[in-house]
Each structure stands twice: as C-alpha cells, then as structure tokens.
Amino acid sequence: MSLNSFGHLLRFTTWGESHGPAIGAVVDGCPPGLQLSEADIQPWLDRRRPGTSRFTTQRREPDQVRILSGVFEGRTTGTPISLLIENEDQRSKDYSEVAQAYRPGHADITYDAKYGLRDWRGGGRSSARETASRVAAGAVARLVIPEVSIRAYLVELGGDPIDRAAFDEAQIEANPFHCPDAAAAERWAEAVDAARKDGSSLGAVVECVATGVPAGWGAPLYAKLDAELAGAMMGINAVKGVEIGDGFGAARLRGEQNADPIRPGPAFDSNHSGGILGGISTGQPVVVRVAFKPTSSILTPVPTIGRDGQATEIATKGRHDPCVGIRGAPVVEAMMALVLADQKLLHRGQCG
Amino acid sequence: MSLNSFGHLLRFTTWGESHGPAIGAVVDGCPPGLQLSEADIQPWLDRRRPGTSRFTTQRREPDQVRILSGVFEGRTTGTPISLLIENEDQRSKDYSEVAQAYRPGHADITYDAKYGLRDWRGGGRSSARETASRVAAGAVARLVIPEVSIRAYLVELGGDPIDRAAFDEAQIEANPFHCPDAAAAERWAEAVDAARKDGSSLGAVVECVATGVPAGWGAPLYAKLDAELAGAMMGINAVKGVEIGDGFGAARLRGEQNADPIRPGPAFDSNHSGGILGGISTGQPVVVRVAFKPTSSILTPVPTIGRDGQATEIATKGRHDPCVGIRGAPVVEAMMALVLADQKLLHRGQCG
Amino acid sequence: MSLNSFGHLLRFTTWGESHGPAIGAVVDGCPPGLQLSEADIQPWLDRRRPGTSRFTTQRREPDQVRILSGVFEGRTTGTPISLLIENEDQRSKDYSEVAQAYRPGHADITYDAKYGLRDWRGGGRSSARETASRVAAGAVARLVIPEVSIRAYLVELGGDPIDRAAFDEAQIEANPFHCPDAAAAERWAEAVDAARKDGSSLGAVVECVATGVPAGWGAPLYAKLDAELAGAMMGINAVKGVEIGDGFGAARLRGEQNADPIRPGPAFDSNHSGGILGGISTGQPVVVRVAFKPTSSILTPVPTIGRDGQATEIATKGRHDPCVGIRGAPVVEAMMALVLADQKLLHRGQCG
Amino acid sequence: MSLNSFGHLLRFTTWGESHGPAIGAVVDGCPPGLQLSEADIQPWLDRRRPGTSRFTTQRREPDQVRILSGVFEGRTTGTPISLLIENEDQRSKDYSEVAQAYRPGHADITYDAKYGLRDWRGGGRSSARETASRVAAGAVARLVIPEVSIRAYLVELGGDPIDRAAFDEAQIEANPFHCPDAAAAERWAEAVDAARKDGSSLGAVVECVATGVPAGWGAPLYAKLDAELAGAMMGINAVKGVEIGDGFGAARLRGEQNADPIRPGPAFDSNHSGGILGGISTGQPVVVRVAFKPTSSILTPVPTIGRDGQATEIATKGRHDPCVGIRGAPVVEAMMALVLADQKLLHRGQCG
C-alpha cells in the first residue's frame, strides 16, 4: 500500500521515477463526454516545465504528454485515461555521488530505511519530477469543473512577502515567479540569483485561489474539503505548511473579528474562512496557502553519512531549482483542481 | 460518501450528533491480542471532557465510554471495536434560535447548502462534540504503538506565544491550558477571562510531538506521513492551519540552514524537518503545529441571515468554549496516534 | 484491516459479536432528505428474526433496532446513520464446549489461526447473527432505490428444486421457506423436520430478482455490478456459490442460445444474462442465485481437535437453524439492495 | 469512480482499450526487494496470448510487456510498477458494423446506456483484451507469494465434463485446452471445431486450485477470502458463476457429509469447504470454479437494434475465440494470485 492514488470518485494514480524511461498517471472516474486531447494538457505541463527561465533547473525535459486510453473521437469515454510522459534528459551520472551518501533534507535516508533499497537516480520516486504527472492529471480535472477558475501565485520568496496593496493579477504571468507584485518580482530575481551564486537556495509561499466553487462541496467529516486540500498540498514535494483562509493568522484574531458576517444572497462581508466552513464550501473563493522549504539540493557541503553509516559530507551538484516554490505553483493549482473535481462528483453522487 | 471513516489498515468510523442520544466510533483493523478495557480509554476522554475548568464550556457530559464489541476476556480479538458514549446534557432549547438563523463562522449555512436540511441542535454533526469519538478511537490507537509517546500542548493563545526558553514539560498538566510555560499560562488565564467577559473568544496554536517513531513509517506518495497528518489535523473542528517541523518558518530559511545534517547513528544535528522527509519518518520526533481559530459561538451579535434569506443578527447564547484550542490538544494527540498506528500497520504490511 | 465495511458511496460498517451486548451498523453516505424511522427497518428484521417457525433456530431475539444518529425530524440528514440492536438471549453456557474444540465447518479454527484467539461464544463475530446488521442497513438502502423491487426466495432445499412451472409469487410469503412453489414447500417441511430429527441439516439455493433497475448501473471494471453482487453474496455466512442469470448453466449453452436478442425499446427476448452485460445493468431484471451449504452446527458427532491439538469429537448442541438458507433469503435481499443503492449513487456521481 | 483498481494493500489499476495504442497496469504496494524483470511476466502473457492454437482467436498480438517503473537494478523498490503492452494488430475496420448496432451478449448497449458514448473498436474497454493487464499484474503478485502454487484448468467445455478419475496434472499443459483429461481434450477439439464451423461458440468451466496457502489469510467480514475471490472471478469477462469448494453441490449435501472432519496436525479428511471457513483460509488447497458463457461474438445472425433504436440483426465477423473459457484459465490464475498476495499483506499488516 504504497498508496500512489489520490481521490475518491475522480481518482488518479501516478507512477514513475525521475530517471526511469517515463512517468505517468492514470485518471479514473472522469465523467464521459468531455472534450479532451493532448492540447488540453500540454499548456499546463509547459507552465511547470523546467528550464523556462534562469530561475529554474536547467534540466531539459520537453514533457510531451500522450493520452493512451480513455478518449475516443476526441471525447472522454468514462474509462481510465492513461497519460504518459517520457523522460528524455536522464543524465544519471550526475547522481553517482548520491548513490553512496544521503543528501540531508532529501528522502534518500528515509526511502532506504523504509524499503531497504532505493533508486538513487535523481531521487527516484521521491523526485519532484513526479509532479508533472499531477499537473497532467490536474488538467483533466479542470475539465470536470468548468465553473471554477484556479489561480496560484507566490506571495513570499526568501522571506520577502509581496505588498498586498500592489497586487496585480496581470503580473502573475508576466514574470518568472508567478508574482502578482512587480516590485517584489524584481527583488526576488536578485535574491534568487544571489542564492544560486552562493550555492544556496530559498523557500517560498504559494497562495492559490479557486473562484466559482458553489456552496455545498465537501464530504464531512473525514474528507472535508479543507482536510482534503491540506493532505493534497502537504503531499507536494518540499511543502511544510498549509493554511486555509487566514490560517495561523486566524489564531490571533478574536471571535468577532474572525466571523465572516453573512448578508442576504447569501454574501459575506469578509472571507477569513477561506471559503470553507465545517469542511464544506461556502460559495466564496477557496483560499489556500502553502509553504515550500528551500531546495535541499545545494552546492554548499553539508555533513551526512554514507550508506555504510560512516560520516562524510555532500554537496549536491547537478541541475537544481534554486527555489522549488516557483515551479510549485502549477502543482498547487493541479491539486486544487483535482480535489475540487473529486468533491463535485462526490456531492453529485450523494446529494445530486 | 459522507466519508465518516479515517485510516487505511487501522480504520475508524464515527457517528453521532451533538444532541442525539449518543455518539460513537467503530475501530476496525486493530491487531488482536492487545489488552483493552474501558479503563484504557476513559482517562483520555476525561482530559478532553468539558466543564473541567472555568476556561471550557460548562456543558456537563460525563463522557462514559462503553465497549460494545471487539474485546473478549480483556483482549482485542481483531474484530471491530464499537465504542459508545451517551449524550446526557442535551438542552436543545438553548439552540432554538440557531434553527432559524445561520451562525457566522459555523457550518450551519454550508450544511443547509449541501444537504438541504440540517440538525440544528448544537450544530448537529458539525459540533466539536464529535471529537470525543476521535479521542476514544485514539486511545485504542495508542495501544497499537506502545513504542511511541505523544504530547500536545498550546504554544500560543490569543496571539500570545510561550517563551520557548521557559518550556517545562511538567507544566503541561499543571494548568488548564496544557501550557508548558507557567508564566504564559497565567497571562492566558487573564486573557480568556477577559474575552469571555467581553462575549468574545480567542484562537490558539497547538503543538504536538511524537517521540519513539522509528524511521520508515509513511506511505508515499499520496498517503505520506505528513500529508496524512495534515489531513487529519485540518479536519478537526476550527483548525485553519497545519505545519510540519519548521512549517511556514522553513520558507524563510536558506537551504543550508534548513538541511538537518546527518551524523552516524544515524542522528541529526537539528530537526527542521519535523521528523519527516519525503513523507517518511526519519526516526526523529514528529512535530506538528495546528492553528485553531477563535470559537465562532460568541455573545457579540454578528450580522447574518435566516433560513428565509432575510437579514438578521445572531448572538450565540449557550455554553461555549471561549477558546476551542484548549480542548483541541487532546484531539490533536488522538489524531496523531491514529495516523501513526495506521502507518505502522501499513509499513508492516508492505515491508514487514 | 479487518475490513468490516462494504460499499463505495453508500458504505456501511458492521460490528458486534453473537453474544456481546449488542450488534450494529453504521450506514454512511445515505442521501439526505429521505424519510426514515425505526418502522422502516423493523419489518425487514422481523422477516429474518429467529424463532418465527419451527424450521429456524429457537433462539429468542426481538431484534429491536434503534436509530442513534443521522436522522432529524424524521428525515435523513446525510450524516452517518448508526443502527443498534441489543442482544438479549445470550445463553453463553450453551457454547462452553465450543471453547475447547473446533466445530468442523465453522470458522472456529480459522479465527484462531488468524488472530491467535477468538470469542467462542456462539461463534463470536463469525456468527450469522451479524447478518441482522446487514438487513438493517439494507432497509436503509431500499429507501435510496424506490424504483427497484427486490424479491428473494428459495428455489432448492436439500437438493429438491421447485417446479418452475408452479412458480407463484404469492406463495413466497405464505410459507416459512420463502418458497414460490406450494408443493415444494410441503416436501421441504418434511425434509427439514426429518433432518432435524436426525441431528442433521440441509442446504438450499436462494434466488433473488431485482426489477426496476434502469440500464447503466455498474462501475466497470473492478466494481462491475455482477462482481459486486458476487462478492456481496459470497460473503454471507454459509454461502459457497453465486450465479448471475443462467450462471453455470450458461456454460452449457451455445452462443446463439445464450445471446439475448435485442428489440426496439430496447427490450430483450430472453434474460440469460441476468440483467447484466459487461458489468452494467441492461434494464432487465437482475437475477442472482446463491448456494447455502447445510448448517455446520449439527447434533451428529464429527471428529475434530481441541485447542490443544488433540483429537476429539464434537456434537454441536444449542439452538441452530436446520437450514440456514431459509433465513438467508432476507440477507440476500439486503445485500442486493445495498449493492444497487451504492451503484446508483456511483452512477449519478460519475455520469449524472 | 469507474473503479479500475483492485486490491487493498497490493493494488493494481488497469487502463486501455482493445484498439487503442496500448494497454497497461500499475501495480502499487508490491513489497520491495523482489527480483523482477520482464522475463518474469512474459511467460504468463504468452500462455494467455491469442493465436497460439486454432482454438483461439487469430488476432496476432505479441503482447510484449515493458516495465516502466518500480524496479531498480533488477529488484522491486516498493514504488508503483507500471506495465505497458502495446497493441499491434488493430484492424479497426473489422468492427465498423459494431459502431452502428449493438451485439447481443456484449457490453455495447450497456456502455452506451451508461456513458452516452462508447469506443466501439473491438469492444473498447469491455474487450477481453484488458485481461492481459491482469495477467501481467498477476505475474507480479506471484512473486509476493512464493509459498503458493496456482493451477487453473478446464473441467467442462460445451457441457462436456472431464472424467475426474482420469485427472492427470501433466496433461494440463499438453493440450490447448488446459485440460487434465486427455480423452476429454480430444472430444473438446472436435466440439470446438464443429462450433466454429457452425458460426457458433461454446462455454466452459475453469477450476483453479491454490496450494501452499497457510491458514489465516482472509479479512472478515467484507473482504473475506471467498468474497474477494468471487468478486475477482465474476469480474472477468464472460463469467457468470463462481463456486468455492463444493459450491452449488454443497447445497445438496447434508450437514454431516459437508463438514470436513479435523484431525491433529491440523489436517482435514476432506475439502468440501474449498480451503476457506468463515472467509479465512484453513491451510487446505483453495478451490474455485468459474463458469464462462459461450463467446457472444458469433457468425450466426442475431436480432438486435442499432444506435438509432431501429431493429436490425448482426453477425459478428472478425477474429474471435470460439470458447473464451480456454483463454480464461490464465486470467483466473492471475486473479487468484492477486487476491492471495493482497490477503497475505493484509494479514501481515494486521496480525503480523
């Protein structure tokens, strides 16, 4: 029960290692009759693809997706949709040192502890490369929820937050950081360049907002919308924290500050709740914030041990993202889409 | 698919409403041969029970648990363990106003949106009373992981954090706030008294640490230990944020600060990771932090609408916790135990 | 993962042992707004209840069901429905011998092999008493599928089949065997009396027909309607065979005999398929046949071994059904209802 | 929730249509450290492969399997194993008529009813071609249970049973019918030739025996070993009946005939139970019998309707198995392996 599946009614299963021949996803439970071709998926993969700016890894992966099943004459048939992405740029030699020693902050030591062996090439299964499969599956999920718009962007990088007053949605696609604040994006460019020069890396916070979610989605009590989102986001590589709405900030508010007054409509005066009450959507935008730790693969040497248990140190060479949070944004969006699509179908099944 | 079950191999299902005749849990998959009686469960329920100090709701519930199945001659048989807790103090009249109007911050409006009707007595199924079932189930889970110690405590209340330098584990049970800092506990008592007097409420942050977790627990990729914990915690009533290890703080560190150096043993110089790498336990303490919003039931009137859609306002009378985070700590512990016990069995099944 | 749950969207979990204080079921995922009270469940339990004729066990169990949750003001709320049935006639002394030796044909030896211990009182969890929980859950499921009528009856008892030409539906409730052939019912009465006198027991075949199932229910490929039914039926105590439509008889037909010609409507000239093609309902009646072995609890002594591994023999005293198939019919109906209701919701979720 | 996954701890998901570019399976939860290469899977696929004798379809499919993930340096890593089989002989033109009219006995009409559209090329997802994925997954499952031997063979074809007295295990691989009775195999050859000449088809009964299964496997109550087997077998294309042990024959025995006496060891005098009591293995051979209907694709014209609802008739040309039961035997074996491997891991997880 390695449990490489996610979702209830719309359920996807991913497979593949960083340096194996391919990676992929099987999306099961997609409603029939939706128009779907590779062209619906490829743009989302392109957004996540490495090597698109100097601020991401220079690994070259075209990430061309192929649909192997579940679509006939351009429409989904209700049967499993198999998505395949071949790995092309597999320079395993870059990783030879990793075979011998555990990289601190990586899953090397824990995979060995769990399984007694591991595919050390580029982190194997634990590589963030797997998230391409999620992005592909997420593209299918988006088709299930045409009423919903999802947008993720960075609100903090290297501890430097955006200015909320300068929030400009048009900026998000205008810079390589998915940053809605143009001034912050400039500061971040310098920070990332400096970190890379130092052989270091930076963390980031991604915010994701889904608008158009109707009231009533969520499956209480143990598949609440917020619980599903939290599990989905915390399972993304390098994520260490998840907030819904005001999140940890809500813990510093008083009851009367935090309650979102309800007006006829219904409408709400504020959205401290992040669009979720009792695990069910309110009809307001669903708001999630996700903390990415700094990339663990750094050139700065760190003390560690080898597989033989002896002390050594390791500097992770190779081509790495100086800030994994940047490429995390499209993955956060994909998981948001997958959770919402699943909850839509669950709701229809029980209450439709 | 209301999905009132949680867990994979150790799986529990809860049922019951705040003001129905009883609440309960069915724990399935518990290994056979463990010594279990009501006396193993009752102390944990007593810790969570309302009315134990002036800082919690004055609802009187003895919360006596009965084991109805799954135990024979004092030992678990491997069959489902049915746990029943009768509701005694059901003053439904307290809630008559709630029948007509939606309490802001509560699940009233979303349950109605989802189901088209709701049990308005005390919040019905969405009441935090349900968490007693989790605590009871968690007591069973603890027996499955005798190698693990779990301790939850408040590290912040009303925005006022503890002083980490003053951390004294012995203090945790010495004050009604599960607070490890005696001075903070005194300040919090004043703050909670003041908030209640004002008809207001406060939020809190609970930290939970599990020691003794061996390396290797966790089911990547979509039932990672941290993902399961995040889902489990975010599903607790009033929770809006979850962090593992340094959490959002990790997003402000540089790569070389955040990497926990590994030493022969293996041992680690630090625990920024919170005991989890790649979704699998490292052998270090597992550390989770959980943000509770302020109680939504407040005496201060808040604008809202009635079931008829008309504007009104509501002040939630009745007996409510001025800070639900206080009684949240035992629930956080229970969910930690349930996740870890489940992961132990999963690991044994796949890799044992 | 004792896995005491069944179903996907409409999911029930049962608990309880033959001679514990109570047994019960939690039904999760029931749509909201359905009228439900104990009066909707009790008649189905009464049909299954022991002691209603001399052809069933004389154990006296009123089998009064209580609804503990999930219903408010007479309607389902969408939250889990907890059903409780107290055990009253628990003469554990009848079973003292069973504590020492394994009854051939029973689960005594296998529960010990699996769990290392067992509740020997009346078979504990493996007792057919648990099926009362299924019947109660099935009564809820029936409300989910008002368009469907389900009828189970015996078509063979002790190797003596009914005469299909004499099939009279009105007879089914007119005799204690759920037998649609009055003449067969008379022969069976004699056969069962004789078997009981001999300290023996008899097997039976139950047929169950669901009419009104629309075309399109079924979740291929691994939750096909027929696969779900087969699993559901084979899991009933004492069942050793399941057929859909012509079943094993279909293996003796030629292709052109077995194909059910399709006419405009659509309509079918015949129903060899039992209303299921490719795991999906055709719109014709769904037909299942279930083989019950003879009761294993017999007065005739059979060689066995004790828990100490030594040879002995055992004659199972106590109050037992001479033919468990008789009381099996209501259980088969319940499982049919539970599978169909679940598939209806699944279909609505994916294709609705 | 098309539910194209099967299993609990060892879980596989299949995808692919008869005439799409490829089919495949993802096997999740396989224990780490097992030696696995394509050479461990290919022989089982070769046994099932079409075109190996004149008694099976002449479609030419090399069915070469590729392992795309989950194996490193020749051993399983504990991560998902992705298996891919390309479709080569896709003569879609053979199926053009099927696009317009529903073949009686096929899933054409039900897929349309369920999904509103279907991939009509060779039956699309409902084609028995998908069972190649199961056979591939089953080959992996076999590695998980090296203590178990599984053997499936035909015991009846076209209504003509084998002579149990002539049972010779060596014969099973010596004829194209997996028939343990040489004389029956000769008769069957004539019968199949005649049926094909007539444009007809025949049914068959497959028996499968697993030896070496230890006592204690099975997850009561709703994942009992026999219930899982029944669901697994009934879900195979063209299957209409499943028996465990004596099956329907048990319903004609008396209690003292059917009880398998237990001797010290433990050992049993007989195996009417088919190696399963109370849903848990006894340690005896596990015996299942599976009824396959005659192939629905026949040259004899049968009345049907078109997608337009108008009456027509159809004779299914193309290359079809005259008796699908023949190629069903390897699939039955695969499902037996998959169920047993899953139950082994479940048992280890809960009771290990």
From TrEMBL, chains A, B, C, D:
Single GO cellular component term: cytosol
Pathway terms, separated by semicolons: Metabolic intermediate biosynthesis; chorismate biosynthesis; chorismate from D-erythrose 4-phosphate and phosphoenolpyruvate: step 7/7
Binding annotation for FMN: R125, S126, S127, N237, A238, G278, K293, P294, T295, S296, S297, R319
GO biological process: amino acid biosynthetic process; aromatic amino acid family biosynthetic process; chorismate biosynthetic process
Cofactor binding mode and count: Reduced FMN (FMNH(2)).
Pfam families (UniProt xref): Chorismate_synt
Cofactor(s) recorded in Swiss-Prot or TrEMBL: FMNH2
Assembly information from the UniProt record: Homotetramer.
Family affiliation: Belongs to the chorismate synthase family.
NCBIfam families: aroC, PRK05382.1
UniProt-recorded name of the protein: Chorismate synthase
Gene: aroC
